[in-house]
Amino acid sequence: MIREFNSEADSSTVHSASHNDETLDMLLHFKSSHTSITYAYKNVPTEVFEEFAVAESKGKAFSELFYNKYEFTKLNHTSI
Question: What SS3 class is residue 60?
Fold first, then answer.
């Protein structure tokens, strides 16, 4: 199952994210001026993604749940 959320209007840091429950891969789209920077994270447990999805502050939750905890790759910049 793919889980997604969009926090474009609610967060100054995170645009959106998606998580694949089978592969445990997560795509995270950060806001940066008029672009979105996408990172792919590996082996993110579904429970951690769910906690992130409901967090009131996505930036704070990112720092607590993901920063320096999971392998990631920077993918691209896209216009938003």
Answer: helix
Give the chain's mean pLDDT.
88
Note the residue count of the chain: 80
d(CA 44, CA 31): 21
Instruction: Name the E strands within 21-71.
Output: 26-32, 35-41
Which residue type sits at 21?
A: D
How would you list the strands of the sheet with 35-41, edge to edge? 2-6, 14-20, 26-32, 35-41, 72-79
Global pTM reads 0.83
pLDDT digits (tens, 9 = 90+) for 36-68: 789 999 999 999 999 999 999 998 999 999 989
Residue spans per domain, the chain: 2-79
CA proximity to 80, closest of 17, 4, 15? 15
